Amino acid sequence: MIDLHCHVLPGVDDGARSLEEAAAMCRLAARDGCEAMVATPHQRRGEWWNADREGLAALAGELQDAVGPGFRVYLGGEVHVDPELLAEVEKLPGGGVLPLAGSRYLLLELDSLGTPRGTIHLVHELVVAGWRPILAHPEFIPWLAPDPDLVARLVALGATTQVTAMSVTGDFGRRPQAHTWALLDAGLVHFLASDSHDTRRRPPGLRRAHDLIAERWGGETARRLAADNPRAVMENRPLPEAV
Ligand SMILES: [Fe+2]
Predict the structure, then answer these.
(1) Domains of the chain: which residue ranges?
(2) Please, which pLDDT band fits residue 243 given cuts at 50, 70 and 90?
(3) How far is the CA of 99 from the centre of ligand 1 (A)?
(4) What pTM did the predictor assign?
(5) SS3 state of residue 73
């Protein structure tokens, strides 16, 4: 399995606070059956602007050295959506936004005050420009979570979605779980990720959610969400067709 969404870079957002904690998160993920993770610090969000791509890359390198070669750490960002985002993405590869592992996939955190209209426009523009937007945890976006039809519309435009492992398992409560299960029922989920922040309260690990998905929606679906689709991101190719 490959975990595409982790706040594991130390000291840059509300995730890991030290290199030791970051390395411990990687070890937990490895023990849980992950072979790699993408470090995705918050970007363009309030106090966590994190536009220093070289600095973040150096931190990811330090973390890789600390955990050793048996577990791979890649770099990306969880990019908060704001009205200037499209202009910033247009500056890539020079802009301050980090795609996942140097691919054309962008992990986007929609604003809780965003609008369907603005998001449809954003997804359309990004896809036309050759980007592959991944909507992070739609189950927590207040105006999107209760509206699978809108998710379907965004997916039809070329977006994909990532649900959070602890939402699948119900660790965040019934409501996010219900929204997540509805998206799974509708076949509108493409990625399972941990969105881990530490080793205890929001730890890494996809296994429990993977197994629950395998039980309810089949082993093939679980493997696609936790392994096959993330691997396509790592290799910067389109997602394999769902069968
Ligand atoms: Fe996150």
Answers:
(1) 2-234
(2) low
(3) 14
(4) 0.97
(5) strand
